[in-house]
């Protein structure tokens, strides 16, 4: 059978992907934006909508980044509201295992699953810094190994809570109208959590909501192979995607899981045009809008840990090396490459080879338009990635809110459907059926 493509839509939120200057750019916090985005994704028969979590606004050099000042609404509140204006679309939200508790997350996600008729998903993440922790009573910082130890037990505890209500008969005085299913008690005692009591909700329509994991480290990959239904990765190119795909899938057997029990869905952006050449030109214009001069300098300062504001963004990279011993200038953004000196050498070589200025280099190394071309070209490329086992599907991140997904749904989805690799209707009422039921 032809391998079917999974598609999700990431509401862009606050980040340097969104083009704020475009007249079509709308609100990041008005419910109308979330509703438009969700309705578009459902019209396109997408598997789920995906929201990030922002527990603190990003800062740079002691000031709030201007791309973050629009605010970050609470994820579960938005998803609960979207449950009322959609009927099939999955509703996925990021909730940190570092600064939440298992009981509250289990209750929040189970509530959304009940409200939506079985369409909830939880993206399990760890929060890496004390800077975010300052917003919480406990504050503090957990080392990487401690974060994943907490996350693993956190997820296991949440699953115990979801499973604590077993199918059973009604108890109580049914004749007089006083009855309820027998709630299950839970007891969990472990290194991270020691809790007991009764969970407030019966089993959800899905049995258990879908679990997504977004870690890229070795610990994150192992965690996903052991416990996740979907892994959200950053490996969007064909070669990198295949390497990541095969590395994660090979780990499944260790936990008694089959190849198809974990779906790999990298983040991906797209730019469309009537022709491939028109799309390429449009993509260049978008990158210039995304990487403004101030943005380019700020990005470089993340790696250099130095004030580089005196450098010409259209000039060469600084001759001075990064300061690996200095405090980071940017808080709230994950830097995946930890060796600053090695990264600076790599970028200098690239800039020299291609004759790139600071701004041009930043555009080069942060290129996000994985799929650029006519609708037919983009559909073919996505299909190629999935057929070649570089991914099971993609989480699309448009550069405009909330209308950025419209063009993809109107122009690319029909091509995928004509190729027989994407659904024309939903498989069933729950997200689990959409993702794992063969149609």
TrEMBL record:
InterPro entries the record matches: Diverse_substr_monoxygenases, Luciferase-like_dom, Luciferase-like_sf, NTA_MOA
CDD domains cross-referenced by the UniProt entry: Nitrilotriacetate_monoxgenase
E.C. number: 1.14.-.-
Luciferase-like domain location: 24-387
Pfam families found in the cross-reference section: Bac_luciferase
Enzyme class: oxidoreductase
Record's keyword terms, sorted: Flavoprotein, FMN, Monooxygenase, Oxidoreductase
GO function terms (MF aspect): monooxygenase activity; oxidoreductase activity, acting on paired donors, with incorporation or reduction of molecular oxygen
Domain of life: Bacteria
UniProt binding sites for FMN: 94, 148, 217
NCBIfam families registered for this protein in UniProt: FMN_nitrolo
Similarity annotation: Belongs to the NtaA/SnaA/DszA monooxygenase family.
Name the UniProt record assigns to this protein: NtaA/DmoA family FMN-dependent monooxygenase
Upper taxonomic lineage: Bacteria, Bacillati, Actinomycetota, Actinomycetes, Pseudonocardiales
